[in-house]
Amino acid sequence: MESIGVLMACPMNPYLEQELDKRFTLHRFWKVPEKSTFLTTHCNSIRAVVGNASSGADAQMIEALPKLEIVASFSVGLDKIDLAKCKEKGIRVTNTPDVLTEDVADLAIGLMLAVLRKLCESDRYVRSGKWKKGSYMLTTKFTGKRVGIIGLGRIGMAIAKRAEAFSCPISYHSRTEKTETKYKYYPSVVELAANCDILVVACSLTEETRHIVNRKVIDALGAKGVLINIGRGPHVDEPELVSALVERRIGGAGLDVFEHEPEVPEELFGLDNVVLLPHVGSGTVETRKAMADLVLGNLEAHFMNKPLLTPVV
Amino acid sequence: MESQPSQERNEQPTKEVPHVLVMKPPPLLTLFEDKFISTKFQLLKAWESTLPLHQFLTTHAGSVRAVLCSGASPITPHIIQLLPSLQLVVTASAGINHIDLNECRRLGIAVTNAAGVFSDDAADAAVGLLIDVLRKISSADRFVRHGLWPATGDYPLGSKLGDKRVGIVGLGSIGSAVAKRLEAFGCTVLYNSRKPKPWAPYPFYSNVHELAVDSDALIVCCGLTAETRHMINRQVMVALGKQGIIVNVARGAIIDEKEMVECLVHGEIGGAGLDVFENEPSVPKQLLELDNVVLSPHRAVFTPEGFMAACDLVVANLEAFFEDEPLLSPLIDE
């Protein structure tokens, strides 16, 4: 398979890169000085694109690669891939579901604890040398807080399972009600926000869910409410969230994703009620290896005419 | 108006409301003083007097039957000696290492603590610290706040929680609350306790060293006693291993802090999440420079909800005592 051209959209994982290099003719798109010339030169040899949460295959890229057969994403989210175009051209698409579910759910709970119990702020406080005996700063209890989940898919369910161990009552909003679960369903995100203490974004990013957390939702969540985003930055109207946090109209936020990564609104840097992470939802050694193996497995299966492991299209 | 017969008038002699001695105010009292107002007792605030404590006690505390204490005002044999009428020690904490239990037992002095009400918060903090260390939450938050993400690119990878074998040191109310939470993440829970707990579905280890050999992380949830002081020593930490994580929400002195710092600095253990230290508020300087530790200023149980529940329990115990009713949370010898 060494003559098969694979285009890697951006750096994402050294092990994956190494393996792709071994098995295929790997083109590292981020190292190419003149991207349009490159595409014209190599358009007939590139049969696969490997993308991730930051960079995938948009319509322009797909049009530029007439021999493209498969887009394998090193992520579960597909918002950077023009799925309609792929369908139209018979291009297969794979992602990495299930293997990262637990890590993302763990991080969601970790963010809830870090925000409510002010773990990062406590750590800063001790490191600053300011700790004196008799400094009784109170934090907020996590056990028993009402958790509202936007999107009750694999990740949403995993978050619910963990939060239940902390006696958190669970409610959710989804496109359709999941009658097989016992959790309380709300037909709108605003109602969900009004009836929970911690609102978590765990749905996929599509045209419909862009800015699903908007001013109305933020207002409904309220001055004691906390927002956790482990979905995609564009799920949240970021300028609205920033002003709500700065003006203390919302209680706090734990954010792993932002609208224009790696840019993070600097107004957040001075706040003690936010925790800011550089998109590390699936960022463990174990999970990234599993994701890489899934990408490799899907590509191998495709080029050997075997059934794909985790096809989306 | 007719004059009332004398026996129906309120002419009972005013009974002196009994005193509860407080030598130094526990955080609970400082933050929620109005919750300690009761018709059944009044507080005798030693710290408000200009007299040195010894003198205050001999002058004013001779008939005191109950004392409200905390870590800052330990109940030593010397103090007990100065309180000849003492029958009850109430502490506003879960920990009881600041009370001489042997002396209390010898003299028939009852002791109550606030164990149950703090368990959820302590467990939440312990799990929060474990996730923080494994997934580098505080460290990555620092990275973002310093504007390093655009320049440096991807943050180093953390380690998955669900695969981990977590050894709980002390399976009391806090330890079992931690265990219940960790199970939901897919962790394998193991434990060490003075005796095996018949209700616990987790493998029991009779000593901490063996527990450490088989664990990826240790969560310290036991009380501080003569037996547990420096129980987590160098041997235990080396057994835990280079990827091993220690979380302590119990008492600093259960861990040999000097050895722990050495192990962390030399990479003999993988990281630590610490809410307590041997000499609070002093924290070993070397820890302040490490990226793989998360530090907290002894506030694992500092939530308004937990504190208010503790206030209610302290007041309820005191009122029960003065009404000759059973105490709500007396310490039972195990």
UniProtKB/TrEMBL annotation, chain A:
Positions the record marks as coiled coil are none
Q: Which domain of life is it from?
A: Eukaryota
What Pfam families does the entry give?
2-Hacid_dh, 2-Hacid_dh_C
Q: Which positions, given as ranges, span the membrane?
A: none
What residues does the D-isomer specific 2-hydroxyacid dehydrogenase NAD-binding domain cover? Answer: 109-281
Would the keyword Oxidoreductase turn up in this protein's UniProt record?
Answer: yes
Q: Which InterPro entries match?
A: D-isomer_2-hydroxyacid_DH (IPR050223), D-isomer_2_OHA_DH_cat_dom (IPR006139), D-isomer_DH_CS1 (IPR029752), D-isomer_DH_NAD-bd (IPR006140), NAD(P)-bd_dom_sf (IPR036291)
Q: Which UniProt keywords apply?
A: NAD, Oxidoreductase
Q: Where is the D-isomer specific 2-hydroxyacid dehydrogenase catalytic domain?
A: 12-312
* Family statement: Belongs to the D-isomer specific 2-hydroxyacid dehydrogenase family.
Task: Quote the PANTHER family the UniProt record gives.
Answer: 2-HYDROXYACID DEHYDROGENASE YGL185C-RELATED (PTHR10996:SF178), 2-HYDROXYACID DEHYDROGENASE-RELATED (PTHR10996)
What is this protein identified as?
Hydroxyphenylpyruvate reductase
What organism is recorded for this protein? Hibiscus sabdariffa (roselle)
Lineage of the species this protein comes from: Eukaryota, Viridiplantae, Streptophyta, Embryophyta, Tracheophyta
TrEMBL record, chain B:
State the superkingdom.
Eukaryota
Which parts of the sequence belong to the D-isomer specific 2-hydroxyacid dehydrogenase catalytic domain? 57-329
Q: Which Gene3D superfamilies match?
A: NAD(P)-binding Rossmann-like Domain
Cited Pfam families: 2-Hacid_dh, 2-Hacid_dh_C
UniProt domain D-isomer specific 2-hydroxyacid dehydrogenase NAD-binding: residue ranges? 127-300
Q: Keywords in UniProt for this one?
A: Oxidoreductase
Q: Indicate the family of this protein.
A: Belongs to the D-isomer specific 2-hydroxyacid dehydrogenase family.
Q: Give the protein's recorded name.
A: Glyoxylate/hydroxypyruvate reductase HPR3-like
- Organism expressing this protein natively: Hibiscus sabdariffa
